[in-house]
Amino acid sequence: MTHSPVPYRSVDHELDRRRTLRALSRGGMSRAEVCDATREVRASAEVLGVPAGRACPVCGADLRETQWIHGTAIGEKSGTARSLAEIRQLLSVLRGGEELTVHTVEVCLRCGWNHLLREDGYRGVAGKVLPESGSVEYPTTYDDGPGHRREDQLGD
């Protein structure tokens, strides 16, 4: 039997994103403050990221989404960007009680806009087996509608 990697905890950062964009439009923040993606963040979006299917709210270029992983169970990999396939593999070997958090970040390669979209926390379950590929439905409030299915996300 297979089990989808369903997060036990999800935190949506859409309100913070909206506040940031509102502050930018009202002059409370400068473009340099919000378009501050580091070389590492841009490189991860270019190499490991997937097209987000929506435009950058600052410059209108296509956005990419990249995943960063955090957790004591993954050692040196914690705090690094990883492909969705590698994250699936890491989730499949999490032991009972171990945790992994996946941060999904949107990045604009043109202007450097970047923002944390969501944090998903996963716990290992003894004996679980995950599928090789698939998708999970995430509710969103971004430009692409209230909910959508993406083949480039975790789960089945």
From TrEMBL:
Q: What is the lineage of its organism?
A: Bacteria, Bacillati, Actinomycetota, Actinomycetes, Mycobacteriales
According to UniProt, the name of this protein is DUF5318 domain-containing protein
Q: Where is the composition biased (Basic and acidic residues)?
A: 145-156
Species source reads Corynebacterium variabile
InterPro entries linked: DUF5318 (IPR035169)
This protein's source sits in the domain of life called Bacteria
Annotated region (Disordered), positions in chain:
133-156
